[in-house]
Amino acid sequence: MAVTLSLSSLADLDAAVSRPAYDRGALRPGILHVGVGNFHRAHMGWYLDQLFEAGQCHDWALIGAGVRPGDAAMRDRLAKQDWLTTVVELDPKGLSARVTGAMVDFIDIDPARTIAAMADPAIRIVSLTITEGGYYVDAKTDGFDAAHPDMAHDAAHPDDPRSVFGMILAALRRRRDAGLGPFTVMSCDNLPENGHVCARTVTGLAQLSDPALAEWVRENVAFPNSMVDCITPATSDRERDLLRDRFGVTDAAPVVCEPFRQWVLEDNFPQGRPALEQVGAEFVADVSRHELMKLRILNGGHAAIAYPSALLGHHFVHDAMADPQIEAWLRALETREILPTLAPIPGVSYADYLELIVSRFANPEIGDTIPRLCLDGSNRQPKFILPTLADALRDDAAIDGLAQEVAFWCRYCERVDEAGNQIAPNDDNSDALRNYALAARQDPLAFLSNRTVFGSLGDNPRFQAAFATKLKLLHDVGTRKAIEVYLAA
């Protein structure tokens, strides 16, 4: 019989399931985290659990928070199991499971409660995993999107915000007025210079309604950059069944992930921080090069395999990587066009990192899916592919493969694979993208006219020519032949 996870049932778990040896009742919160999804619990929650297990920093426990309906559903699931999460590491050499206990509360999904919790002086860090598209970035200017309805609302109603950034500002205002030090705001999302982007959004919103607060934030609040990495698939019945059948645990919200994690942070925490370096995190003065390496090689690599694999009908990432043509396409694009855009990092081999990425993508235990990699392309392409393309254009370097990747995405946006199967919409802008993609059948440059995605990059004559050539080739001969042409070049 499987054991239903809760604090009272920990002693009943199978011996193969690791569990906290520390006293959760002795933990005290120091971090409020917004966006308690799978990645957060497999990454930041796991690091803190390891730190607490080592007997360290028990005043840095987590409180969960959220702003979306899905956050409320997650709260409900976790509440029934005392905020515990089972993390299963999908190592091909042998799976392992651990119940993690770094979270001690998850406040109601309510702006007033969230603001009050952030304003509590015990909270010294407010951290975020709100997805790459959650930072109100204007794709046309790459700056703060002040015109977004959420930002307009929060500027007009600073005491009744709807966005997490409005809540952060309301809490910071309370702390400033009470003479309390501000918390550090730490983004854990896959964004280039995520701390700087977060700071720009917070101060940009403040500037709309309270310029004095905006100036105070600029002078007093830290927004450290960070690089985070751990492949974490979505949880489905497959993962819940695996946990129950393999380890005898019934968990309403388990997490499965690869056995690899990386966390590189800028050491800028004026109110203090947990000693995460004791459990494998790395603190550095400048995260940017590590961050760019990961965003371009790993996230860009995911984008590179996602769309041709979807067009060919692959569902699981490991099955796509078992397709020799997909693996060869990934290696060629990375080696020819992505790695050359990266400045060297002392002691780091980009070639070795690429080999690590290839092996991680090919891990059959992860069960990561191509539909997940294809998700939200209109936000991910401008972050993981287009900056690489822009740098290559600037340096007059090769762009044929990058143009081919954009062509694969364009063809995918038609929402029909090469076998004629319908592809479910998985982008907030799916309908607009489909219209652009269908128009590109007659005029390839119609797809690049989408300013929200491409900005001025779509006007570059060299990119226009390469994209038009690659899209026509794809329409004429299909995905496999298009890859074959690139590999033979």
From TrEMBL:
Keyword vocabulary terms for this entry: Oxidoreductase
Keyword match Membrane: no
Keyword Ligase among record annotations: no
InterPro entries, per database record: 6-PGluconate_DH-like_C_sf, 6PGD_dom2, Mannitol_DH, Mannitol_DH/Oxidoreductase, Mannitol_DH_C, Mannitol_DH_N, NAD(P)-bd_dom_sf
GO molecular function, one term: oxidoreductase activity, acting on the CH-OH group of donors, NAD or NADP as acceptor
One Pfam family cited in the UniProt record for this chain: Mannitol_dh_C
Sequence ranges assigned to domain Mannitol dehydrogenase C-terminal in this UniProt record: 286-473
Domain Mannitol dehydrogenase N-terminal residues, every copy: 30-277
Protein name from the UniProt record: Mannitol 2-dehydrogenase
